[in-house]
Amino acid sequence: MIDFANISLYLPGILLAYAALMMGLISPGPALLGLMGVSLERGRRAGHCFAIGIGTGSLCIGILTLTGLSALLATWADAMTVIRIAGGLYLLWLAFKAFRSAFRPKQMAGDTIPPDGKHISGMGYFTRGLSLHLTNPKAILTWIAIISIGFADGTPLWVGWVIVLGCGTISTLVHFAYATAFSTRPAISLYRRAARWINGILGVFFAAVGIRLLAGR
Question: Membrane-spanning residues where (predicted)?
Answer without folding.
Answer: 15-38, 50-73, 79-99, 158-182, 194-215
